[in-house]
Amino acid sequence: MHPARARPGFRGFPPPPGGSSMDSLRRVATVTTVATLLLITVGALVRASGAGLGCPDWPHCYGRWVPPLSVEDLPPSADRATFNLAKTWTEYLNRLAGVLVGGLVLWTTWRAWSVRKAARRVFPLALGIALLTGFQGWIGGLVVKYELDPRWVTVHLFLALLMLALLIELRETTRLGDIPQSRREAGMPPLLARALKVLLWFSVIQILLGALVRGGLEVVVQENPDLPRDRWIPTLGSVELIHRLLAIALALAVLGFSWRLARSRETSATDRRLAWTAAFLIAAQYGSGVGLHRWALPPTLQVIHITLASWLFAVLFLLHRRVR
Ligand code: HEM
């Protein structure tokens, strides 16, 4: 056994130095992670309600920082026929939520600066998250500029997942300090730790396929504006079938993994709970996918489907960072 493992603390390691400042950074990082997850849901709500172009410009909305309250408030150059008050304010609230997350990220970075000497990795990580958040804001502007082009929407989704992964990494670093991953105990049988890595990549591929399905549906609608909603999926072709088939494989793999992990004696109670959470999320995700397919894409299920996908990714990534 490595000598460091004999010491008390997380899986045999002492807690990192930094005391209450480190604990405070962990709490702020947790709040920022949860806020980022909520922002993904708000973004999905905007998309499902068709409010994505509710503000036709960026960073302003109809040329103003606070959008118009009625059609009379519109600037003379604005197209009055396309103005929709509810959609404008939905998109504006999405932007405010984005600003809130941006503020939380800055707060996290500031807290990370105060413990930079206790754990060398925290500040560069927090700074990376802050830069990525700024970049994500700029990409959000491109999404508006290119009128919700599916490629930019997909880039926007993947950057959100990357932000989530880095925030979880930061949070875990506040628990483990500078101990390199290679020196941590796995906390689960090595085979399961390897399987978890594969599952994580598998879920990322499935999310990418989902984004391709969504982008494909948008093209179908643009090219056939009169096509009834229940014909959208059948018109789409093979990408939707691949997404559905891989979903079966992913669901079985996550359920099998969770069952094995929950039964392993090496697993901590928290990791077991995380394993069951992943099992619940994949089952619910599968169910929402079936619902989308069967009931011709109800907007509520569109929001639930993307929300559950981001939660599943976050839980699998958290489990992965807790082990080697
Ligand atoms: C089980 C794992 C699954 C994962 C991780 C997953 C993930 C995703 C993601 C991330 C999207 C993109 C959503 C967006 O960008 O707004 C998506 C879209 C979609 N998925 Fe899945 N999915 C899964 C299972 C399924 C299943 C089983 C079905 C059908 C039986 C399905 C049907 C769809 C459909 C129809 C869309 C397009 C929805 C839209 O346009 O809003 N999915 N999926």
Key terms:
single chain, 324 residues, 0% strand, flat
Describe the protein's architecture and organization.
- Helix 3 packs antiparallel against helix 4 (150-176) and helix 4 (150-176) runs antiparallel to helix 5.
- The protein is flat, with a radius of gyration of 22 Å.
- Helices cover 70% and strands 0% of the residues.
- The protein has 2 domains: 1-184, no CATH class; 186-324, Up-down Bundle (Four Helix Bundle (Hemerythrin (Met), subunit A)), CATH 1.20.120.
- The chain has helices spanning 19-48, 85-114, 122-145, 150-176, 190-223, 232-236, 238-263, 269-294, 299-322.
- It starts with 18 loop residues before the first helix and ends with a helix.
- It has 324 residues and is mainly α.
- The chain is built from 9 helices and no strands.
- It binds protoporphyrin IX containing FE.
- The site of protoporphyrin IX containing FE has 30 residues, from helix 1, helix 5, helix 7, helix 8 and helix 9.
Q: How many domains is the backbone divided into?
A: 2
Structural class comes to mainly alpha
* Total DSSP helices: 9
Beta-strand content estimate: under 5%
Beginning-to-end CA distance, first to last residue: 16 Å
Say which molecules are bound, naming each kind only once: protoporphyrin IX containing FE
Average pLDDT figure? 89
Helical fraction equals 55-70%
Summarize the structure.
The chain is an all-alpha fold and 324 residues long.
Write the layout of secondary structure elements.
Elements: H1 19-48, H2 85-114, H3 122-145, H4 150-176, H5 190-223, H6 232-236, H7 238-263, H8 269-294, H9 299-322
The structure holds protoporphyrin IX containing FE (HEM).
The site of protoporphyrin IX containing FE has 30 residues, from α1, α5, α7, α8 and α9.
